[in-house]
Amino acid sequence: MIGWATVFNEANMVGFLLLFFRFAALFIATPIFNHKNVPMNIKAAMAFFFAVVFYSSMPPLDIPINLMSILIAVLGEFMLGLSVGIVLQLAYNVITFAGGQISFMMGFSMASAIDPQSGVSMPIISQFLSLLALMVLFSLDLHHWMLLFIDESLKTVPLGGFMMSQNFFEYIIQATSNMFLVGFMIAFPIIALSWLADVIFGMLMKTMPQFNLLVIGFPIKIMVAFAVLIATLTATMLILKGQMHEAFNALEMFF
User: Fold this and answer.
1) Considering only CA atoms, which of 92, 101, 29, 34 is closest in space to residue 241?
2) Residue 111 in contact with residue 124, Cβ under 8 Å?
3) Helices 218-231 and 233-250, axial angle in degrees (round to 10)
4) What is the pLDDT confidence band of residue 8, given thresholds at 50, 70 and 90?
5) What does the alpha-carbon distance between residue 179 and residue 62 come to, in Å, rounded to a whole number?
6) Is 60 exceeded by the pLDDT of residue 28?
7) Please, are residues 82 and 104 in contact by the beta-carbon 8 Å criterion?
8) I want to staple 20 with a disulfide (CB 3.0 to 4.6 A). Which of 13, 51, 85, 207 is the partner?
9) Rounded to two decimals, what is the model's pTM?
10) pLDDT given for residue 234 in this prediction
11) Cα separation of 237 and 233, whole Å?
């Protein structure tokens, strides 16, 4: 009875609650875990399961046990999860941004569908690249990385002791600009060839007025874009892999 009373004392119960919210915030915000097709009750069950698994690694609670301090600590755990999710999501959004640029140049901007991961409408090329990138993240074991991050964070960031730093905001500004830069870099081969095709088609229409751009030009432009997309697909996924590695390494700023 004394052992159970020690396990279920007030400090341990509050610590378990904060550990649960740390996992829950990560599952809500980070890629792979935040997939819209995963029901919220499944995410909550996963957070509870991993909170039980990591309960033995939980450090002693270092906050006063009262309502206000517990609410602030829960808010801090959510801020930690959302901050990690923003860092990783910015690296992942490089692919969807590049896909939007490619779709625009191919004339597929109106061909949009509901993305099963984010639940929003996006061009079909963005959706294709997003699903392919999701498989790449599984191959990189990103879901295992996040569990290792939680284990490390318990050693350096006490439960309820997360504080937002200026380095985070500076990184977000840099990562956002990097997202646009790398996204344009990925889409540049198709954008350049599309511009070149437009110049060639314009010259053909000047020399041969009977040249029908809608009937002949657009299918050729789409075929060339698909050929370049297939040729550069491996390089695109390698760029995504590098971006995710850099984003995960940047999580050290939270420690």
Assistant:
1) 92
2) yes
3) 50
4) low
5) 38
6) yes
7) no
8) 51
9) 0.78
10) 85
11) 6
